[in-house]
Structures are given as structure tokens and as C-alpha cells.
Structure to design on (206 residues):
């Protein structure tokens, strides 16, 4: 089992915690991580882009000039793609970009993402994370004490003081355990978990 140091909010080490190898010590599957990230980005696409082809553009019903004898190249319509105001050759149409990943693939990708953070020493465990009031400055001071920037904080519960204190800080995101995804784990420099969050994740994914 991998051992990770546990810190308090002042940045001092208070002990160690052993992480379950079935979640934080699996063989990293980079292909599955890539697929999970691509899936999330694809599923977020609206797919509402639309342009008109030459058959959909209004006008252009009559031949602009006779076929021969004008000195111009022959033209059949003022709505051909080469004309200003003409249709688009291979116009995009609304479509659904989403695709499916199997449940086992999703779980394996998430475990691989967590493991890669442990291997890169970019996973921090906190003894506890709570504030008496909503104050961004307190959250920023805690991050400075832990030497963190661009971090994902995974919480074991809905703590409004923590969530609202963090939401105005650029490159910081808070998430519940059921909201954690591979894209966010790989996007942020550091993943910060509370001890309770570690236990909850191990119960769900082990």
C-alpha cells in the first residue's frame, strides 16, 4: 500500500495514511484515461452548428447570364459555392458528438487517474477542511501554507463555507465524491483529498 503524508490546514504534517492499492495503486492505463477525457469533452459539445448548402440558400433560381458569348465563365446559379452569398460546400449540420464508455472502463480510468497522481506525488491528504466563515482570504492562506496552486479539492460532504470560500479563486475547483471525474483530476496540478474523502472513495471504488 502506498503511504501519503497527512497535513493540517496550517501546512504541518500530522501523520501518514495508507492508500488502498485497489484504487490508488492500480496499473495506469493511459489509453482509458485518454478515452475518458475525450468522452467528457465530446459529451459537453452542443453540436448545434449549422450552415446552408447551395440547395438551402434562398435565391439563385435563374441562370445569371447566357451560357456562351459573354466572355464570362459559364454559371448556372448565383448561389453556387464560389459566389458571395452562395452555399457552403460541405456545410456542418447539427449532430450529437457524445459516445458511451462502459461502467468498468469508467471506473478503471478513474482509478488510473488517481494512481497517476499518487505516482507523480501530486496527491495531498488533509486531516480536515473546514472554515468558520465564508472568506476567500482564509482559503488562500491555507493554499499558501500547503504550497498549492491550480488544485482540485475533493470533499466528503457539502460544506458551504469551504465551497463559497474557494469559488472566487482562479484555477481552484471543489467537487463532491460523486462529481469527481478523470478530466478534472488530470487538468489540475494537485488533487487534494480530506481523510474522510479518501475513506469514502475507497468504499465506493475498491
Amino acid at each position: 500500500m502506498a503511504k501519503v503524508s497527512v497535513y493540517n490546514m496550517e501546512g504541518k504534517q500530522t501523520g501518514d495514511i495508507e492508500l488502498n492499492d485497489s484504487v490508488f495503486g492500480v496499473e495506469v492505463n493511459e489509453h482509458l484515461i485518454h478515452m475518458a477525457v475525450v468522452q467528457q469533452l465530446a459529451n459537453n459539445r452542443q453540436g448545434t452548428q449549422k450552415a446552408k448548402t447551395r440547395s438551402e440558400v434562398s435565391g439563385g433560381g435563374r441562370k445569371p447570364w447566357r451560357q456562351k458569348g459573354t466572355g464570362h465563365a459559364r454559371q448556372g446559379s448565383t448561389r453556387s459555392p464560389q459566389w458571395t452569398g452562395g452555399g457552403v460546400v460541405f456545410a456542418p449540420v447539427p449532430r450529437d458528438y457524445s459516445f458511451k464508455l462502459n461502467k468498468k472502463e469508467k471506473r478503471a480510468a478513474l482509478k488510473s487517474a488517481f494512481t497517476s497522481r499518487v505516482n507523480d506525488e501530486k496527491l495531498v491528504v488533509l486531516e480536515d477542511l473546514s472554515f468558520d466563515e465564508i472568506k476567500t482570504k482564509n482559503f488562500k492562506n491555507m493554499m499558501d501554507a500547503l504550497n498549492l496552486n491550480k488544485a482540485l479539492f475533493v470533499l466528503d460532504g457539502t460544506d458551504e463555507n469551504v465551497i463559497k470560500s474557494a469559488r472566487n479563486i482562479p484555477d481552484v475547483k471543489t467537487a463532491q465524491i460523486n462529481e469527481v471525474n478523470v478530466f478534472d483530476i488530470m487538468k489540475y496540478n494537485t488533487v487534494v483529498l480530506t481523510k474522510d474523502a479518501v475513506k469514502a472513495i475507497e468504499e465506493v471504488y475498491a
Observations:
- Residues 47-96 form one domain.
